[in-house]
């Protein structure tokens, strides 16, 4: 019963978002974007949850409210913009959390008895005669770990572990005396030029041990050249290749397509 202008938008009961388009009313459920983790339910008459407070474990909390968890483990939480953030108190060395919220760090942690010795909570020590292993006492339990070593970017045969050291180091690589090819195990001296199997490709061994290769570009100057095995570019001076046969210069032969035609191989 209410006239609406084209393009008008409004909300109907039941959280339906409607718009007037071309004389028709199109309605969809209201899409809510909630930018918080613990929103409050939608207020009366509203469609979307609100971030002006927090709903945590079924209890509504006001903005800025500070509270403790129901299990009483000394955790303190705060409601900020619909998000609940909780903090657990850090106890100083020599103490541990207590079930009492009034005094969360009152108990005394257990000491560690290890290899005939007694260590206080939090103590760090090395194993007898092994400076590469570090141990720590945590509440009566001893945890040991190897000293972390940096990642090395050299191959295994260049790594070296010196006396009294915990981690390997990289030796200086020897100066390259040539180029070693892993595919066939051949080593070429610096300055050596060779073909790797393709007659159109030549490679040279550089002074730093690297290999530089370059291909030869052929320019064919005749339509029927002869291709010589092992030679990169076709030969236009040795004769002609025609219909799978090789003819020498100035040689006359009948055409394979027409026996009444006579052909001649000419060098141009």
From TrEMBL:
Keyword rRNA-binding: no
Domain of life, source organism: Eukaryota
Record key words, sorted: Glycoprotein, Secreted, Signal
Keyword Ion transport: no
GO cellular component: cytoplasm; extracellular region
Cellular compartments annotated: Secreted
VWFC domain span: 1-52, 52-113, 110-171, 177-237
Matching InterPro entries: vWF_C/EGF_Fibrillin (IPR052080), VWF_dom (IPR001007)
Matches recorded under SUPFAM superfamilies: FnI-like domain
Record GO biological process: cellular response to virus
Primary location class: secreted
Protein name: VWCE protein
Organism whose genome encodes this protein: Rhagologus leucostigma
């Amino acid at each position: 019963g209410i006239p609406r202008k084209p393009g008008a938008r409004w909300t109907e009961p039941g959280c339906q978002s409607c718009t007037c388009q071309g004389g028709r009313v199109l309605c969809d459920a209201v899409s809510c974007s909630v930018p918080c983790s613990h929103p409050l339910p939608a207020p009366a008459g509203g469609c979307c949850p609100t971030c002006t407070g927090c709903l945590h474990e079924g209890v509504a909390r006001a903005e800025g409210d500070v509270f403790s968890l129901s299990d009483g483990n000394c955790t303190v939480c705060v409601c900020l913009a619909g998000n609940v953030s909780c903090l657990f108190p850090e106890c100083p060395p020599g103490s541990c959390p207590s079930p009492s919220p009034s005094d969360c760090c009152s108990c005394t942690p257990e000491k560690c008895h290890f290899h005939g010795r007694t260590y206080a909570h939090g103590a760090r020590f090395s194993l007898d005669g092994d400076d590469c292993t570090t141990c720590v006492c945590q509440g009566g339990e001893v945890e040991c770990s190897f000293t972390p070593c940096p990642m090395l970017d050299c191959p295994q045969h260049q790594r070296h572990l010196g006396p009294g050291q915990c981690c390997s180091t990289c030796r200086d690589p020897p100066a390259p005396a040539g180029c070693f090819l892993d595919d066939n195990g051949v080593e070429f001296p610096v300055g050596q030029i060779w073909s790797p199997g393709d007659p159109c490709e030549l490679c040279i061994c550089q002074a730093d041990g690297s290999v530089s290769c370059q291909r030869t570009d052929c320019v064919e100057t005749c339509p029927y050249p002869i291709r010589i095995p092992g030679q990169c570019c076709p030969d236009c001076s040795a004769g002609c290749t025609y219909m799978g046969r090789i003819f020498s210069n100035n040689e006359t032969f009948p055409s394979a397509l027409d026996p009444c035609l006579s052909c001649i191989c000419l060098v141009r």
